[in-house]
Amino acid sequence: MGIPERWKRCTPVPPDINARLKSLTPIFQRFNVTLAYLFGSLADGRAADDVDLAVLTPGGAEELRFAVTQALGTDRLDLLDLAAASPCWRFEVVSSGKLIYKRDDESENRFEHAALREYKDTAYLRRRHDAVLRQRIAEWSSNARASQNA
Description:
Blueprint: H1 3-6, H2 17-22, H3 25-30, E1 35-39, E2 51-56, H4 62-72, E3 77-81, H5 87-96, E4 98-102, H6 105-121, H7 123-149
Parallel strand pairs: 2-3
Antiparallel strand pairs: 1-2, 1-4
Helix pairs in contact: 5-6
């Protein structure tokens, strides 16, 4: 499903989205959010079809969705729950996202350190997965060529 199809019936991202993002602090406080990051095209300063937010909260990210979409004035919100995210997603958010809210410095430091450590600790799993995938692609490719020649 492409972006245009996915967001077809949703309210577009408003032109004043950056100002609206700054208004999220009271919502983050009300929902006991520990950390919130903006990532994706909007964080990179590019035109955005949607708003990508990643949050760390003990209550789960879904409880925030309605309040955040109301404040931002758009339904085009991808909300990533950092507590449930994979090490790759956590690393991506920490390394390329913009921190837009933090409850305190200690929480930020603890989470970012853990995200980087976990990403490095699982690197061997990603390498192994890539090797198996490359092997299967090579096998499939040689089987496809053999069946074409038969």
